[in-house]
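[step 3/7] fold_predict: job queued, chain A
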Amino acid sequence: MTSPNGPRTGRPPTLANRGVVATSHHLASAAGLRALTRGGSAADAAIAANAVLCVVYPHMAGLGGDGFWLIHDPRRGGVQALNASGPAARLATRDYYRERGHHDQIPARGPLAALTVPGAVDGWRQVHERHGQLEWRDLFGDAIHLAREGAPVGRSLADWLVQDRELLREHRRAGEIFLPIGQPARSGERLVQPDLARSLDLLASGGAEAFYRGELAERLCAGLEDSPLRPGDLAQFQAEWVEPISTTYRGKTVYQLPPNTQGFAALQLLNLIEGYDVRAWGDGTADYYHFMAEAVKVAFADRDTWLSDPNFVDIPLEKLLSRTYADERRALIRPDRALEMSQVESGHAYPHPAPRRSPEGDTCYLCAVDSSGLAVSLIQSVYHDFGSLVVGEGTGILLQNRGSFFSLDDHHPNRLEPGKRTFHTLIPAMLFDGETFELAFGTMGGEGQPQTQAAMLTRMLDFGYDVQQAIEAPRWLMGRTWGTANQDLSLEGRISDGVARELLRRGQPVNVLTDWNDNMGHAQAIRRSPHGFLEGGADPRGDGAALGY
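[step 4/7] structure written:
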């Protein structure tokens, strides 16, 4: 039975006065909390936690991946946004892949999938230079220890080791690290990564320079065979501070990063559903899931038509985020009949419509707030589980395969070009009440990120849930889940049979999953509660925790 303040859930929110860290692994949260209690800032906590995630969540995070940041510094006001995603290598042309026999699609695994610069580490550098309080070298002690002495294999990693065992066996260096005895480790067993420990040591002592221009850069590119990535591509890279984009929902301002992320799709989704009386639907009803799914279809049609690097594609953001445009697009949605995904065309005429392809991906989201009010919303990823499966020689670092999402179609907006950043699903978010920070929130989950963010906001703002209730409430996913070819409306098993039947009656492509399904993402959030406490939540679908003091 639902109370006026939301359903009872498996754990309460974490309430604290001075600081909170919420991540998808409890050891990463602990590392972030230690940074705070040693006098570090929320930025220090986020870097320390992210470094630990690179060790304990290697299937989703890593030094070889990208990152995106939103930061609120109360001394400066507003929101700062950092794009730490790397561009395609200078040699990465469409002809480069065609000459190697790939005319339709870039391979998802192997050296040819490792074609973009890993951006995350320079993101750490720039955030630390602007907001750090602790010494750089002091941020990596927990990660180095866990890599050198061994980290316990968590439930999520154990499940993915089983799912990916054949892929890991095909890629020798990755297999030697993650299948050291030839079989997947069980939850609770020890995973030792000595090469990664040495790389983290080099990074701690030499700074980001050691990663992009030193020994690590050479080793990362050594043995990449056919990959177009070269040490010179790493040496030229710098993460970029950008202007965030925003909209309002229920009178509060929601911030996202601009393209090359799908942040505008998350904002457009909110613009669409704000035109409805969401509270009147009731949480967990057929109306709630139907209208949310239909709004996702409409927002994603525009996303798939336009999203790419704005330095290469002129994206009409002002139009896409306008209330007038949302009103026009909302008219497509019917209360009694589901739209086919193929029937929802973009509201803008693009000269060459973009073929639909699901941007699958695994990710780690984390957030931190400190006693000064500095708030961080950070998301970091190697894209697919274990990225490209290519490990830089002697580094223990998995290189991402984010560039495999580029198109080889000459007319596609996200077509591969040297120096171009690809379409990114990664979207950390923040919510403000006027000029006052209220919430940092986000999730892993590719297609699911805008949907889970909308679920969290509607449940907090429309239904009055606390952050943990909003995270734990049953979720949906419109789009592809891992291992499926169809665009389904996936529902967690805790959603009632009656609701599922009604959605089927309306034409929704319902696919019922398990009760607490990994495909629904691992969400985290920290909110400034009405009573002035920091209120943190972490997703039980992952291995995380929200810790405070």
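[step 5/7] annotate
The chain has 20 helices and 21 strands.
Residues 22 and 546 are 4 Å apart (CA to CA).
exit 0
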